[in-house]
Amino acid sequence: MSHRLQQISALIQKDVANIIRRELELPLGVIVGVTKVVVGPDLKFAKILVSIMPATKAEPVLKFLNQNRLVVQQALVGNLTMKFSPKISFALDQTEMRAQHIESLLDKVQGGGN
Length: 114
Prior knowledge:
CATH superfamily: K homology (KH) domain
Helix content: 40-55%
Radius of gyration: 17 Å
Order of helices and strands: HEEHHEH
Structural class: alpha+beta
Pfam family, one: RBFA
GO cellular component, one term: cytosol
GO molecular function, one term: ribosomal small subunit binding
InterPro entries: KH_dom-like_a/b, RbfA, RbfA_dom_sf, Ribosome-bd_factorA_CS
Strand order of the largest sheet: 1-2-3
Largest sheet: 3 strands, mixed
Number of strands: 3
Protein name: Ribosome-binding factor A
CATH architecture: 2-Layer Sandwich
Strand content: 15-25%
CATH class: Alpha Beta
């Protein structure tokens, strides 16, 4: 990824996190973190990876985010000083869940060896 795309991704990540916090009414007790933004080379699309806690609320909150992506996108247009604002979509970042699964497997292996 080019330096420019990295800068734009970081800017979108910061702005979207602030927009979610300010503009959207998330269910009580739900925390949404923007973990990564993947921007297409033509800057027309951006996939926003989020982590959602608690994990049991991940699917309905992800659906809520995608249903409200136009609200986020319109707020983002006001913050970006680019010719085009990318169309956004939200996806669940599986990294944390995979890490927890690996840790539990390692705990089982280590516990079984003693």
